[in-house]
Write a structure and sequence with these properties.
This protein is mainly alpha-helical. It has one domain. The protein has 21 helices and no strands. The radius of gyration is 23 Å and the shape is globular. It holds the Pfam family Polysacc_synt_3.
Length: 524
């Protein structure tokens, strides 16, 4: 047995340290996601121009397939982070070791099953999707590459879960930056050296595997040997505790992943050709920047929410959820409305002529993401409670209602069918949270949370957008980047003034400065 240590008794020090870790993990996560989004933002139009819309659509299809098969996680990622965080706080290293080694077995099996699915799908490309004869060999080779890499990707999940529980997300996100840089370099080399599509995809896949050795090396932060965490060995009794919780998350995740990641696959089946998948990938890359930031907040907040819920301090929980919702809404509101303001110009600069018509669908997708991501703190706390049965029901209803919309309108709206389907899904999901989970499970004031934490930032963003559009029509700016820069500066000034007057109090600014200064001293 490993020694059992005691959590610190000084609540003030613990809370301060937790705030710093949340800030560090969020800051590095945002930086990593920003760099990754910028890399995609620069390389996708280059790759589409080099390989063509139809052939690049094959890569977009591969990404969608890979994302959808993540449902085989069975919700275990969320459950593992929750329990690893609680056991880390109580120093139950023996239990962590047993479950971690069982997880290696579990994810290894999932990876092998995943690989066989890709191999099986490689033989039925034309039956599953609207592929031309010339595209079939490329599709088949892409499936082979995914089959070879999927096991390592699944196994790395265990290491990331452990590091998340140990508040090492700052390190994880720093390493992610390396992968983003490599992805960017691979794309540049592919174009410069005129690689075949498959050669590019091989090197891209290898670049995504580079962070894994760095993650494993960081496990030294645990007071136990790495082999006791990663050597495959099944401990059924210890593993069962997480699996029971995770299965409910899996059923919920099944519907969420189906609603989110089946949409491009349905476009590939019911829309006109694989070109629509390139359109989808273009606006997805921009919208996913906001989704990625929300994912960073979820990733960072889940361990802290689990610990806060375990302590049972309702007043502290309510304050944490309100403040987190307010500042996430402020930050993401700025990002969303800046992108909407510049949507058409960005698409023209990003992809060139012929893509400006996507600005409407991009704007709707961005607003949907803002609605979804403001709920991140609440979702983190709900997952921490373990009371997820109603989430299963709400996800199922929203999925069943929204997916037919994509199928019905794919032929007429094309990529817009997926966007409208996603909007319907998310409105239903957020509605369920405010009607049931927030008042009845979390015992929080949903009306106050929505009206005072989310709406002020959203309304401010909308007003700043209208004011900025009015001002820019009265002034003359250089086309292209000049217009985007001018729009962004004007919006930032108007939005910032609104926040200072109506949303952010002087005490909030002083507290933020204090946190930043303490963080800086801690890193000195």
């Amino acid at each position: 047995m490993y020694p059992r240590t005691t959590a610190p008794t000084d609540r003030t020090t613990e809370t301060s340290g937790r705030a710093k870790r949340i800030f560090s993990g969020s800051a590095w996560g945002i930086l990593a996601k920003t760099l990754d989004a910028l890399a995609k933002f620069v390389t996708i139009p280059m790759l589409v121009g080099f390989y063509g819309r139809a052939d690049y659509g094959l890569i977009a299809l591969a990404f969608s397939l890979n994302a959808y098969l993540r449902l085989m996680d069975l919700g275990f990622n969320v459950g593992a982070v929750r329990y690893f965080s609680m056991w880390t706080a109580s120093g139950e290293w023996s239990k962590i070791g047993d479950v971690s080694r069982s997880s290696i077995v579990f994810y290894g099996i999932i990876g092998l099953v995943n690989a066989f699915i890709f191999l099986g799908m490689s033989a039925y490309g034309q039956q599953l999707f609207n592929l031309t004869e010339a595209q079939v060999p490329f599709y088949r080779q892409i499936m082979y590459i995914l089959a070879c890499s999927t096991v390592l990707n699944w196994l790395s999940s265990v290491v990331i879960q452990l590091l998340s529980a140990k508040d090492e997300l700052g390190y994880v996100n720093r390493v992610t930056v390396i992968s983003s840089v490599l992805n960017f370099l691979v794309a540049l080399l592919a174009i410069q050296m005129q690689w075949a599509l498959i050669t590019y995809f091989i090197y891209y896949t290898l670049s995504t595997l580079v962070p894994i050795p760095f993650y494993i090396a960081r496990l030294r932060v645990f007071p136990v040997a790495r082999k006791s965490l990663l050597t495959p060995r099944w401990h059924g009794q210890a593993f069962k505790e997480i699996l029971t919780y995770s299965l409910a998350i899996f059923v919920m995740g099944l519907f969420q992943l189906t609603a989110n990641n089946l949409r491009p696959l349905l476009l590939g089946k019911f829309a006109d050709g694989t070109e629509v998948l390139t359109d989808y990938r273009v606006i997805q890359t921009i919208a996913m920047l906001i989704v990625a930031f929300g994912g960073v907040f979820m990733q960072v907040l889940l361990p802290s929410a689990s610990k806060a819920y375990a302590e049972g301090n309702q007043e502290r929980i309510a304050r944490m959820i309100f403040e987190a919702t307010k500042y996430i809404s402020v930050f993401l509101g700025f990002m969303v409305f800046v992108l909407i303001l510049n949507a058409e110009d960005i698409l023209l600069l990003y992809m060139g002529e012929g893509y400006g018509h996507l600005s409407l669908w991009l704007s709707i997708w961005l607003l949907t993401v803002l609605l979804s991501m403001h709920n991140t703190p609440v979702a983190s706390l709900v997952l921490s409670t373990g009371r997820t049965r109603f989430l299963v029901y709400s996800s199922a209803v929203a999925c069943i209602v929204s997916l037919p919309i994509t199928v019905i309108f794919a032929g007429t709206l094309q990529v817009g069918a997926a966007v409208v389907g996603y909007l319907v899904y998310m409105v239903l999901q957020i509605g369920f949270f405010y009607v049931y989970y927030i008042p009845k499970v979390l015992h929080l004031d949903g009306r106050r949370l929505f009206a005072r934490a989310f709406l002020p930032a959203a309304i401010g963003g909308g007003l700043a957008l209208l004011v900025s559009q009015y001002i820019t029509t009265k002034l003359v700016f250089p086309d292209g980047y000049g217009t985007v820069i001018a729009n962004t500066i004007i919006f930032t000034l108007v939005y910032g003034l609104y926040l200072l007057v109506f949303v952010v109090k002087p005490a909030d600014i002083r507290q933020l400065k204090k946190t930043l200064m303490e963080k800086g001293k801690g890193n000195a």
